[in-house]
Amino acid sequence: MSHAIALDGDRTQDATVDELIAAFRTWGLAGSIDRLTVPLRRQGVCVRMETPHHGLEIPAACAILLYRAGQEILTNAFRHSNATEVTVRLEAVYHGIRLTITDDGIGFSPESQAEASRNHRYGVCLMTMAVNEAHGFVSVDSAPGRGTKVSVTIPLD
After folding, report:
1. Strands of the 85-93 sheet, one edge to the other
2. Angle 32-34-38 (CA atoms, 0-180°, nearest 5)?
3. How does residue 116 score in pLDDT terms, banded at 50, 70 and 90?
4. pLDDT at residue number 65
5. DSSP string of 103-157, one letter each residue
6. Which has more pLDDT, 83 or 27?
7. DSSP assignment, residue 46?
8. Which of 51, 99, 114, 152 sits 20 to 30 Å CA-CA off 86?
9. Which helix (H) or strand (E) holds 85?
10. Are 34 and 67 in contact (CB under 8 A)?
11. Cα(111)–Cα(58) distance, rounded to whole angstroms?
């Protein structure tokens, strides 16, 4: 594949399903998500990848959903968190798979998130809707000065 699928890439938002599936075949889901961290690393952020389970078969639709969720979460970390450390964990859980991204950034309060929604920032809302439609769930834990932890869990059965 001649171009990297990364946050600052020209084709990040319009990568086709076929391009993503090809990337998954080349780098796997974890490797593809890791490539999304390139801009954070360039910014000097220490990024840790944790993938304790290897070789798990993930349906393409689930992999694409997790990739897009990771893309949204990492984009927000890049743009808003001022983090120095980010941890990306992809793990098998009971009858599913979970992507958890944690940063040590500035965090936010629920009130500021509600205000951001009124200001047309719908990425997390749309991500949550897509995950819920797949019978999964999103958990966001954050507070000012405490960083942010976002978990996306998708069932595999």
Report:
1. 46-50, 85-93, 96-103, 148-155, 137-142
2. 115
3. low
4. 95
5. E-S----HHHHHHHHHTT--HHHHHHHHHHHTT-EEEEEE-TTS-EEEEEEEE--
6. 83
7. E
8. 114
9. strand 85-93
10. no
11. 36
Distance CA(52)–CA(76), nearest Å, equals: 25
The predicted structure's pLDDT at residue 25 = 85
Tokens of 130: 């897509």
**What token pair was written down for 51?**
């993938």
Q: Quickly state the pLDDT bin for 113 (edges 50, 70, 90).
A: low
Angle between helices 17-35 and 60-76 (to 10 degrees): 50
> Strand pairing partners for 88?
49, 101
pTM score, whole prediction: 0.85
Pseudo-torsion of CA 132, 14, 50, 53, nearest 10°? 70
37-67, pLDDT tens digit by residue?
999 999 999 999 998 766 678 899 999 999 9
Residues 6+ away with beta carbon under 8 Å from 72: 123, 124, 127
Tell me the C-alpha distance between 8 and 140, whole Å.
24
